[in-house]
Amino acid sequence: MLARCAAETGAWLVHYSTDYVFDGSGETARDEEAATGPLSVYGQTKLEGEALIRASGCRHLILRTSWVYAARGGNFAKTMLRLAAERERLTVIDDQIGAPTGADLLADLTAQMVRTAVAQPDLDLSGTYHAVAGGQTSWHGYASFVVEQARRLGRDLKVQTIDPVPTTAFPAPAKRPLNSRLDTTKLQATFGLYLPPWQQGVERMLTEILG
Ligand SMILES: NC(=O)C1=CN([C@@H]2O[C@H](COP(=O)(O)OP(=O)(O)OC[C@H]3O[C@@H](n4cnc5c(N)ncnc54)[C@H](OP(=O)(O)O)[C@@H]3O)[C@@H](O)[C@H]2O)C=CC1
Ligand SMILES: Cc1cn([C@H]2C[C@H](O)[C@@H](COP(=O)(O)OP(=O)(O)O[C@H]3O[C@@H](C)C(=O)[C@@H](O)[C@H]3O)O2)c(=O)[nH]c1=O
Question: Does residue 171 carry a pLDDT above 90?
Answer without folding.
Answer: no
